[in-house]
Recover the amino acids of this structure.
């Protein structure tokens, strides 16, 4: 891309990954600029970091939306273009044997919040949406409204574990408790599952006998802050291709999946 890419960001907490991406943009390592930062709660510390830089921010308070829904006021505010059957057919956040009522309520409450996110994002066109410590699962309702060009994924997430191990909310804790000897972090494109989309980049650290959850977290964060800007840079350089792959399995079945291929940098003379 010849022009700078426009990057939107969603956060829930301190925003240290967002900071790393902003710094990389300012230093010229990424040809990009942050055009908005949204949060799912008003206490997200990262909001302060960006307000002082004049970047537009907004909050969609998921907590109060979910509470309101539980009180029975929710269905009235479901977005008009929300199609529950379509979302249920596509989602892979919940297993097939999950309580259907729970799954329906999850998809509806999140769609109410996601419609507000989309509304807040509307005035700020963007090329890439980065989830930088955004601790909410996105539903197909939202994802389909961002990934409008078939085969072109544009929501990225960072996760504090070597996916596909330890998806969920506590990647470092899960890695530590399991007694892993290697931990790491992963940047991937978001699909309809939890931390399951095509992997763009990973970095690993060694875990030794004297490591604690705190030292593991410190090792991991240090890697996150270089991995995420690197992956955003590859996107900005147009070097991330998603490719559908099929492999024959010994069982006679076929494995199908989407993977990211990183193309070489253009030759310079
Ligand atoms: C980071 O460790 C990130 O990998 C993790 O939240 C932290 C946010 O820190 N994200 C997830 O666990 C997503 N499943 P930050 O707000 O300082 O960037």
């Amino acid at each position: 891309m010849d022009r700078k890419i426009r990057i939107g960001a969603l956060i829930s907490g301190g925003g240290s990954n967002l900071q790393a991406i902003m710094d990389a943009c300012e230093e010229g390592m990424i040809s990009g600029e942050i055009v908005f930062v949204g949060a799912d709660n008003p206490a997200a510390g990262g909001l302060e970091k960006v307000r002082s830089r004049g970047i537009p921010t907004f909050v969609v308070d998921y907590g109060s939306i979910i509470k309101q829904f539980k009180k029975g006021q929710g269905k009235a505010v479901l977005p008009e273009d929300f199609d529950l059957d379509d979302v249920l057919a596509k989602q892979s956040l919940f297993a097939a044997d999950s309580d259907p009522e729970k799954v329906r309520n999850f998809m509806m409450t999140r769609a109410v919040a996601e419609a507000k996110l989309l509304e807040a994002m509307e005035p700020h066109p963007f090329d890439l949406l980065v989830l930088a410590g955004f601790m909410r699962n996105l539903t197909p309702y939202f994802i389909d409204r961002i990934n409008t060009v078939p085969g072109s994924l544009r929501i990225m997430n960072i996760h504090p574990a070597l996916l596909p191990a330890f998806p969920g909310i506590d990647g470092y804790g899960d890695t530590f408790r399991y007694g892993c000897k290697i931990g790491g972090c992963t940047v991937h494109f978001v699909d309809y599952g939890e931390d399951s989309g095509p992997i763009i980049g990973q970095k690993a650290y060694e875990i030794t006998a004297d490591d604690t959850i705190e030292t593991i977290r410190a090792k991991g964060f240090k890697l996150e802050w270089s991995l995420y800007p690197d992956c955003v840079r590859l996107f900005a350089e147009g070097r991330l291709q998603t490719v559908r792959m099929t492999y024959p399995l010994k069982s006679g079945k076929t494995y199908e999946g989407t993977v990211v291929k990183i193309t070489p940098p253009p030759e310079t003379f």
